[in-house]
Every structure is written in structure tokens, then in C-alpha cells.
Amino acid sequence: MNLLRTLIVDDETLARSRLRTLLAECHAPGAEVVAEASNGADAQAQLLTADLDLVLLDIHMPGIDGIELARSLRQRAGAPAVVFVTAHAAHAVTAFELEAVDYLTKPVRAERLQQALQKAERSLRERRGPMTEVLQEVLLIQDRGRTERVLLSEVVYLKSEFKYLTVRTAARSHIYDGSLAEFEERYPARFVRVHRNALVARQAIRALEKYDDGEDAEGWALRLDGIPEPVVVSRRQLAAVREVLKDPR
């Protein structure tokens, strides 16, 4: 992919001109500006007719704003990559929830724009290559003012504790504001319920074994890939877990 076919969307003429100048300095990859739009409605019209790889998108515009436009693009198969370019840093979390590949704040530097193009190129290769079906989903974890992206494919188990979920990966545990029922309904092929308070990743299951927690000598627990602690299986879910062991798909 040598040149990223690019649409610049910004209601300020000088801002669009500045991006054109900076893009001319980018070469690995480079970009070809095939269209410009001064508002969301114009951008939607361009998106219907132009073959695009990338949208450089302002947020605050009259009419349809950048967030709304990016949300509509998310529903389209083969949509271009989105990089937000804005004077406001406040929408960064929303941007990543919409799967933007980068978020640039004005004034934009050429080297920072080049990094964004590299991210866009990698994203497009993953999405448009032969392995599109395994495109990763992410959880956005909020931790003391910091937002961290955790690949759903790295989650070993989810456990409900008090009002939050513990999201366990091989590397560490995270606290997430969500519900088990939500994950169970949305990702039935990825997770199986093993207890009223726990889901485990089907592909992470390595063994089902007898487990004595001091209260139930006839209890069972799962050994999962990448973590030392067992996850208890309730009697009610035991049959479902045994079925997964026979066929983890």
C-alpha cells in the first residue's frame, strides 16, 4: 500500500490546507488527497462516491459532527480508517470507542501525522487482508484517569465482584464496569458460563479437575491457560463445561 487515498474533513479552509501540506511531507506511507469536505454532509457524499483508505476528520463542525460521522462509518463494511484531527483533547476516549486508529490534536506536527498514517496502514492491512474475520475487539479499561485497551482475545476469564467485573488476562487483572450477562449474550462463541459469577474463555480451558475449597469436597474447578489460579465450576454449569471440553469451538 504506497499511497493512502485520503479525505480531509474540516470546516476551516486553512486547516485543510495545512493538512495537505503536511501530507506532502509523509512518505512511509504517503497519502494522496482525493477529496475534501467542509462539513459532515459533504463528507458523507464523498464517501458514497470515492474509493478511500483514510479519513482525516475534525470533530466540531456545523451539522453532522465528526463523532456522528465516525459512528456511521463504523457500521460499513470496508470503511476507511479514521484519524481524528481536532483542537480538543476531550473526545479521545469516545474516538477510541469508535475504533479510530489515532487522535491528533492541533497544531499537528508532520512526524506525528506520519505515525498516524503508519497506524492507518497497519489497520487497513489487517481489516482488508485474508484474515478479516479475526479482527480484534477491545475493551477500554479506565484506571485512575488512564484509558487502557485490552484485546478481548487476551481475556481468560471474567468474574463478577460487587458492582464491577474482574477482567483477567495472563498478564494481570483489570476492573471493568459491566455485567456478565452482557458478555454472555454478546459473545456466546467466545465465553462459557461456569458459575453464577464467572465466564471463562472457551479456548483458554485446559483441564477440569476435582477441587476442594474447604466447603465442598466434591467440587470442580477449571485450569486455564496462562494463569495459576483455578476457577470454580458450579454443579449447575458442570454439564455445559464438559461439553466445551469435548468441543471448545
Please describe what this structure looks like.
By secondary structure, the protein is α/β, with parallel strands linked by helices. It has seven helices and 15 strands. It has helices spanning 13-23, 40-49, 66-74, 92-97, 110-128, 180-186, 238-246, and strands spanning 3-9, 30-37, 54-57, 81-86, 102-105, 138-143, 146-151, 155-161, 164-169, 173-176, 191-195, 198-201, 205-211, 219-224, 231-233. The strands form four sheets. Strands 2-1-3-4-5 form a five-stranded parallel beta sheet. It has a five-stranded antiparallel beta sheet with strand order 10-9-8-12-11. A three-stranded antiparallel beta sheet has the order 13-14-15, covered by helices on one side. Helix 3 (66-74) links the parallel strand 3 (54-57) and strand 4 (81-86). The longest helix is centred in the middle third of the chain and has 19 residues, at 110-128. The radius of gyration is 23 Å and the shape is elongated. Mean pLDDT is 87; it is low at 130-135.
